[in-house]
């Protein structure tokens, strides 16, 4: 086996684990590992770059699987992305021109067009990093997470337009044929139904991401990663799309390690490169402020605007692509490619810290931040009110719906259901159930939920233990109201964990289902066997 591969794996694991002990994302450790390997003379290889590209392609495909296309048509997404792009270019151009006037090294040789080009590269945020952060916080479905991902996709579209114009390579006529991809969606759905849940599902995901998505788009002269994103969007909404995303998760994570290593291996910096990259990292504060002020204009809560800004508080790997292209064409010197690579790495570390302490920072500065908040809030960002409800059922799947129906017979309209899927919420309402939309895995939901003293019982009926555990953790922080909490569990370890978070009653699905099945059978079949006098009734 190639010794360099073993060294890369060992170094990445070592630094990833060390950084993990500091509660920062392991990706920061992978970046540092790349710089350390670079320092000792190692360079990025073609194989590593190919694996890194595969990781990015699978990441964008996974985003598409979870994306609601309607998100892109929301004003805060396309409007926010467009306004911020223009504002960032103006902001960075003025500041970089000031540094040029001061005679700072590397800036002094830039003309106005080169200043605008560097500013353009700095205006983008990293899709890979932002989505990784959101996934680690389990907040890709939160309002701020959806807005952040929407803005990133709009930026990807802008990137495609720029690369098409700058390379001077127009898409082929086959690009128009790609408009017919939605027509094959029913066929893709049928194939997904037949793929099952094993290795064929994983292989089908690779086929869609690499062949139907990236391959077809690259053949048509368009950005391959955009094709992977759209291929994922074609399957979004299918019941098995979530299973496919889970199946690809570990492989995607493994390949993305190569992406972060490749950034660190991109070039060996000197002290001047580090100084300029450090200045660009400080200027990241202006980018965050621009995001916050722009999003606040769309009537979002100050918390939503701030958390979205922190998710996007980084420089993009797209900047490396633009810098490499500009270097190849002679528009920028090789030094700027190294500087931007270091600035991207520094920005990842800064963004990791900001996202880690986002709640603490918001709590400390919430009063001045709320001055930028509109009086009438965005309809998706208003408080979640439960009215006169006394019993809440979180998770309106099969078990949650069954619990709701049983409680509704006894307590009537005092029971309210909550589900993350708005389409499912509408379906429940059409059947006369009192249900509202809310994602229990979304910190925004708990921040907006207005629980009153009228609430007596809360049922955590989500099929995923992580959802019930997170909800129990949030409910355990509420001291102002007295209510009982009951939750579903699959295993004994789940029961123990839920009890630690103050859940009053845990219902083990497997154990209770087994005893319930036995009771049902004995009752229906009227089994006449002699009972053991020392045993309890079922």
Which strand-content bin applies to the residues?
5-15%
Helix content: 55-70%
What's the total count of β strands? Answer: 8
Oligomer type: single chain
Provide a compact summary of the structure.
The protein is mainly α.
Structural descriptors:
538 residues; 6-stranded parallel beta sheet; 24 helices; 8 strands; 6% strand
Please outline the helices and strands.
Blueprint: H1 3-21, H2 26-39, H3 46-66, H4 75-101, H5 112-122, H6 127-136, H7 143-167, H8 174-177, H9 185-195, H10 199-219, H11 224-235, H12 241-264, H13 271-282, H14 284-296, H15 302-311, H16 317-329, H17 334-356, H18 358-369, E1 384-385, E2 391-394, H19 398-411, E3 415-419, H20 422-430, E4 435-437, H21 443-448, E5 449-450, E6 457-460, H22 465-476, E7 484-489, H23 492-500, E8 505-508, H24 509-525
Parallel strand pairs: 1-5, 2-3, 2-6, 3-4, 6-7, 7-8
Helix pairs in contact: 1-2, 2-12, 3-10, 3-11, 3-12, 4-5, 4-7, 4-14, 5-16, 6-7, 7-15, 10-11, 10-12, 13-17, 14-15, 15-18, 16-17
Your description of this structure?
With 538 residues, this protein is mainly alpha-helical. 65% of the residues lie in helices and 6% in strands. It has 24 helices and 8 strands. It has a 6-stranded parallel sheet, sandwiched between helices. Helix 22 links the parallel strand 6 and strand 7. Helix 3 (46-66) packs antiparallel against helix 12 (241-264), helix 4 (75-101) packs antiparallel against helix 14 and helix 16 (317-329) packs antiparallel against helix 17 (334-356). The longest helix is centred in the first third of the chain and has 27 residues, at 75-101. The radius of gyration is 26 Å and the shape is globular. It starts with a helix and ends in a 13-residue tail after the last helix.
């Amino acid at each position: 086996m190639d010794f360099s591969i073993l060294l890369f794996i060992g170094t990445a694991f070592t630094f990833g684990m060390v950084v993990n002990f500091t509660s920062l994302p392991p990706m920061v450790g992978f970046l540092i590992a790349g710089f350390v390997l670079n320092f000792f003379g190692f360079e990025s290889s073609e194989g590593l770059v190919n694996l890194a590209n595969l990781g990015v392609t699978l990441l964008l495909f996974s985003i598409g699987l979870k994306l609601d296309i309607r998100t892109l048509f929301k004003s805060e997404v396309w409007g926010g992305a467009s306004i911020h792009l223009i504002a960032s270019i103006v902001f960075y151009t003025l500041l970089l021109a000031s540094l040029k006037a001061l005679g700072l090294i590397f800036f002094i040789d830039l003309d106005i067009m080169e200043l605008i080009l560097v500013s353009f590269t700095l205006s983008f945020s990293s899709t890979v990093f932002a989505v990784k952060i959101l996934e680690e916080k389990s907040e890709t479905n939160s309002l701020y997470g959806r807005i952040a991902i929407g803005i990133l996709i709009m930026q990807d579209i802008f990137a495609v337009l720029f690369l098409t114009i700058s390379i001077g390579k127009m898409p082929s006529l086959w690009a128009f044929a790609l408009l017919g991809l939605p027509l094959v969606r029913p066929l893709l759905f049928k194939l997904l139904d037949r793929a099952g849940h094993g290795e064929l599902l994983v292989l089908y995901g690779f086929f869609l991401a690499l062949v139907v998505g990236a391959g077809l788009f690259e053949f048509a002269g368009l950005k391959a990663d955009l094709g992977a994103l759209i291929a994922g969007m074609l399957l979004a909404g299918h019941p098995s799309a979530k299973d496919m995303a889970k199946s690809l998760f570990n492989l995607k994570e493994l390949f993305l390690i190569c992406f972060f290593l490749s950034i660190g291996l991109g070039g060996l910096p000197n002290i001047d490169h580090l100084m300029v990259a450090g200045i660009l990292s400080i200027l990241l504060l202006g980018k965050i402020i621009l995001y916050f002020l722009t999003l606040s204009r769309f009537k979002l809560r100050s918390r939503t605007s701030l958390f979205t800004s922190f998710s996007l508080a980084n420089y993009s790997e797209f900047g490396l692509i633009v810098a490499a292209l500009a270097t190849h064409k002679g528009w920028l010197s090789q030094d700027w490619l190294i500087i931007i690579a270091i600035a991207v790495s520094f920005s990842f570390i800064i963004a990791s810290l900001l996202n880690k302490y986002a709640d603490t920072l918001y709590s400390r500065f919430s009063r001045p931040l709320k001055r930028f908040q509109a009086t009438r809030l965005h309809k998706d960002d208003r408080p979640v009110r439960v009215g006169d409800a006394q019993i809440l059922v979180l998770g309106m799947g099969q078990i949650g719906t069954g619990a709701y129906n049983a409680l509704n017979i006894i307590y009537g309209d005092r029971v309210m259901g909550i589900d993350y899927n708005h389409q499912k919420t509408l379906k429940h309402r059409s059947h006369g159930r009192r249900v509202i939309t809310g994602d229990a895995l979304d910190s925004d939901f708990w921040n907006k939920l207005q629980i009153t003293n009228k609430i007596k019982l809360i049922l955590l009926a989500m099929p995923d233990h992580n959802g019930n555990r997170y909800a129990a953790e949030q409910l355990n922080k509420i001291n102002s109201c007295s209510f009982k909490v009951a939750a579903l569990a699959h295993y004994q370890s789940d029961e123990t964990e839920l009890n630690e978070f103050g859940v009053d009653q845990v219902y083990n699905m497997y154990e209770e289902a087994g005893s319930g099945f036995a009771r049902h059978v004995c009752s229906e079949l009227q089994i006449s066997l002699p009972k053991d006098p020392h045993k309890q009734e079922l």
